[in-house]
Q: What sequence folds into this?
């Protein structure tokens, strides 16, 4: 779909264009749409199930589309199958093109906030009550591995950060969730 037929991009927002009559089955629909929407921002906040992040989505020709994917395609063309658009700052409603990057699912998971129930303060570090030890885990070459097990949360955090640094995690990974 040629998104430029429907929107123009302004400061991270998609703005509805005045659309021609042939985009609508009736003259009335054409007039109503352009009166109510042309020149206004597109997108309603949408929070997928099991997600801590909200995104903006738009309805075009009766189908929902995520605004960040539209913005990416307007600037860079079609998104290859299996690829995702990552919001670098973690704010799913910040669709500035400089805040978006195309990544695999694996890479996208290397730019996640710390979960709200995290007690260590470091993503990937948890306390094992049974063994009474702090454990640091990281995904390295596609496998989840233990990089530290011991009595010190500080050493676990240090080992986790080092493993992340050596394994291509984004610098924002583990930021505080909002």
A:
């Amino acid at each position: 779909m040629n998104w430029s037929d429907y929107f123009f991009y302004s400061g991270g927002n998609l703005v509805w264009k005045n659309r021609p009559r042939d985009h609508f089955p009736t003259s009335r629909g054409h007039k109503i749409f352009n009166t109510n929407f042309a020149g206004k921002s597109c997108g309603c906040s949408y929070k997928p199930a099991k997600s801590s992040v909200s995104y903006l989505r738009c309805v075009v020709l009766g189908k929902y589309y995520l605004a960040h994917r539209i913005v990416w395609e307007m600037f860079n063309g079609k998104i290859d199958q299996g690829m995702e658009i990552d919001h670098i700052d973690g704010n799913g409603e910040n669709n500035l093109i400089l805040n978006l990057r195309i990544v695999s699912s694996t890479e996208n998971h290397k730019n996640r906030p710390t979960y709200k129930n995290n007690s260590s303060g470091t993503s990937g570090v948890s306390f094992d009550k049974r063994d009474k030890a702090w454990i640091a885990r990281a995904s390295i070459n596609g496998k989840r591995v233990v990089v530290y097990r011991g009595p010190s949360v500080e050493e676990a955090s240090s080992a986790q950060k080092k493993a992340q640094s050596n394994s291509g995690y984004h610098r924002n990974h583990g930021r505080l969730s909002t």
Q: What stands out?
A: The chain has two domains: 3-79, 113-178. The CA atoms of residues 24 and 39 lie 18 Å apart.
